[in-house]
Amino acid sequence: MKKRIFSHLSLFLSxxxxxxxxxxxxxxxxxxxxxxxxxxxxxTTMQVSSSTTRTSLTNIGKTSGKWxxxxxxxxxxxxxxxxxxxxxxxxxxxxxxxxxxxRLDNFAITNAENRGYVYGSTYKKGDIISVALDIDxxxxxxYKNGVSQxxxxxxxxxITTPIYAEIMAVNSSPQLTGNFGLTPFKYAIxxxxxxxxxxxILIGKSTLKATAGNAKVDLTWSTATNATxxxxxxxxxxxxxxxxxxxxxxxxxxxTDTTPVNGTPYFYVVxxxxxxxxGAVSNEVTATPIAAVKPNEQATLDVTxxxxxxxxxxxxxxxxxxxxxxxxxxEDFVVNYDATLMEYLGATEVPGYKVYxxxxxxKGTLRFIVASQGKNYGISADTVFLKLKFKxxxxxxxxxxxxxxxxxxxxxxxxxxxxxxxxxxxxxxxPAFLDVNRSGSYTLLDLxxxxxxxxxxxxxxxxxxxxxxxxxxxxxxxxxxxxIVGQMLTNPDYTPNK
Length: 498
Hints:
The protein is mostly beta strands. Helices cover 9% and strands 38% of the residues. A hairpin with a 2-residue loop joins β19 (266-274) and β20 (277-278). α2 (444-453) runs antiparallel to α3. It is elongated and about 130 Å long. This is Cohesin domain-containing protein. Keywords: Coiled coil, Metal-binding, Signal, Zinc, Zinc-finger. Residues 1-185 form the B30.2/SPRY domain.
């Protein structure tokens, strides 16, 4: 009996031990996981030498985010150290040099351009040099004993990710100790930065869409992996620079920017954020907010001529129509035409629309007042409501132009904007020949003139006044008179035909 109890108790304790071990191994939701960061000698303390191991990197690099660490100068020769960052294969670096306080780029790297800049104070044994690296904005700030030596920009084209913390011997054999966050830092971490030892959170990219409105832009985006909030950024030129218009957007993946100015193009991106880590920018979208258009404010009075070209003496029709209109029941408008090239023959009403006033100054300007015949004829689509008849009387490019207009629904009147009062043109060509006396219409007078020239050669006729050779055979004869009579019989303006 005692053996069985002891056996059960042992089994229970074993299970409990495993469970506690597993739970202890899991990182909590409120504390970031950390890694043991060392130099290349697998220790946080290392002596580098200008004659042997000149540089040393950390065993883990960073690809994005803001990171902080501290380096203590351990020996007198530490003043000859360079403390900074490097790319993975040490081909590009930037360091803060203790002996003269200069910033050194690519020092002692054979395949890169060496550069030196006046930067900060000198440092020596016992000093603590802190480093604040902002990969997302390509900036680095060194601190000497907690005092900032000012931020600087590094070349992200040279020092590409992953980026590693680095120590370097410019001269002699400096010894340095790194604190990457597994023990308390000597100085406060700058706002927004994380200890270098924390696991890097890889945040995905969102896909962004934009819709412009009246003094606003609506933005929506897809969820970014590992993002707990989002920053919305805006620029007025493509590619940036961007400034935040919203930060810490949580609980949704949409945002409305209500600060834009109508008519200005804006360029947007969004980034996912987790703690102090901000992910890469999304695709860039552009949007130009515009003022809301009220009904009928963009209405257009259009003119459409039914032919592209005619010959002198031929007729054509110009259709008048309303476009981009809503529930319009009355129109008052003015039309101009080139009276030297065309003759106005009258207007033809379209069923459902009646002309209640027509004014003709006989010099090329017409005014019409038109009204719909019932609620079923309110204009809410592209609608032809009147047809104007013309006859070409001279050679040239003729124009029918809607000069101005006013329209009305059952609540308000609206003036047609000058840019929306449209026109159309027609090419008027000289025919192979006109009627004999060039009046533009075949009548008995044309027959009489040709009868006078009957039997003569075309060269003997008075060509300055008459086109007697109608059939163009160099003589005036029966064929010409027969042709003229045929044109007379089909001429609707010849009085005996009416």
